[in-house]
Amino acid sequence: MTGSNMSLRDYLTQVYPLAQSDLDTMSDAAVNEFFNSLGFYFQLSPQPTDAIPPGKISPRNQAELPQLGELYWPSVINPQGFWCRNPYDPTAPLNNKYVNGFASGSRVEVCHSNVYDGSLGVYYYLAPGSGVAVDLGKTLVARNKLDALRKLGCNNDQIANALNTPDTAYWPYYTGGQLPPAGSQKLFRNLVSDYVAENGVTTETAQNEIIDAAIDETNYLYGRVNDTGWQVDVDNFKLAKNAGYDTVQLTTQANMNNGWAFEIIDLRVVADGNLQTTMTHLNQYHSIVNPFNTNSYKPVNNTWPYYNLYAKGTLSEIARDYPSYQGRFPFSGPGFIRPSAIPGYPC
């Protein structure tokens, strides 16, 4: 069977072996409806002609936001062979079906997006259709990183202190489809200074209004402040873990595709700062699921590297372009994409 002649039903059967019995009983219309509802698509080689719905395939960083339903690369680390659909309306990001998150104990389909060594938690993207799920355990639902800090007890002064910590910066709206040059990250304190000059308010008022707008997703520019690293991530990890949570859901998190993503932080990591050890430890919370019914699943017992949660040798593009990220990754590189197989799944 060649890729170009593969039917949609055959494609789904090959990609989702646990769903075979469901597919056998579904009409062609139901099969099409299910396929078009997915947010995550496997790329086969060769690719069936109709396997991926039509629509512009957007790069991760672009001047124009990917529109609702368009295909794009969401991950900081791009596993070869996977595409996602944008579930967010660029004009109303809170108007999405996942904005309220999932209950504790839910099993949700994900792909991996980590840029740390695991010592600050492992990050996933929600990816309905990936066939790989994580058990959320006891979970905290927040809109974004700053909302998580607030729900973990931080006031605006404490959040501002985290944002003003050295080596903490955020990613602004990008242009040209590429990462901005090294050193062009924006600082929260500069955003505050501009706000003070433009609105004639005190620094404290400016900080409060920017943070409130970022949490509430009422202003795109200020919402980008959530796409920040280091101290904000450290505080979220430590506070959530100390509060007894297993995971944190960020349902409308600003990310590097200039839009938003549903990110999940897994706090159940080992402390040795080795991503391989961390991912092996988290193996017990992962499963291969039937996307028609996530209660139908089988446990994962893979050795490193395993399936789409991490590909050995793969490193973030930002490690190549930004000196402050270098030395924070467990592999030499960067830039190598060596996909590892999902058991029973083509990729």
Account of the 3D structure:
The chain has one domain. It contains eleven helices and twelve strands. The protein has helices spanning 8-15, 20-24, 28-37, 145-151, 156-163, 188-199, 203-216, 220-223, 231-242, 275-282, 317-321, and strands at residues 40-42, 57-58, 71-72, 82-85, 107-112, 122-126, 132-135, 139-142, 247-254, 260-266, 286-290, 293-299. The strands form two sheets. It has an eight-stranded mixed beta sheet. A four-stranded mixed beta sheet has the order 1-4-3-2, with no helix packed on it. A hairpin with a 5-residue loop joins strand 9 (247-254) and strand 10 (260-266). The longest helix has 14 residues, at 203-216.
- Percent strand equals 15-25%
Counting H and I runs of at least 4 residues, what is the number of helices? 11
Average pLDDT score: 79
**SSE topology string:** HHHEEEEEEEEHHHHHHEEHEEH
Structure in a nutshell:
The protein is α+β, with helices and mostly antiparallel strands. Helices cover 27% and strands 16% of the residues. The model is unreliable at 303-308, 310-315 and 330-347 (pLDDT under 50).
Keywords for this entry:
347 residues; eight-stranded mixed β-sheet; four-stranded mixed β-sheet; 16% strand; disordered C terminus; 27% helix
Topology (elements, then pairings):
Blueprint: H1 8-15, H2 20-24, H3 28-37, E1 40-42, E2 57-58, E3 71-72, E4 82-85, E5 107-112, E6 122-126, E7 132-135, E8 139-142, H4 145-151, H5 156-163, H6 188-199, H7 203-216, H8 220-223, H9 231-242, E9 247-254, E10 260-266, H10 275-282, E11 286-290, E12 293-299, H11 317-321
Parallel strand pairs: 2-3, 8-9
Antiparallel strand pairs: 1-4, 3-4, 5-6, 5-7, 6-10, 7-11, 9-10, 11-12
Helix pairs in contact: 4-9, 5-7, 6-7
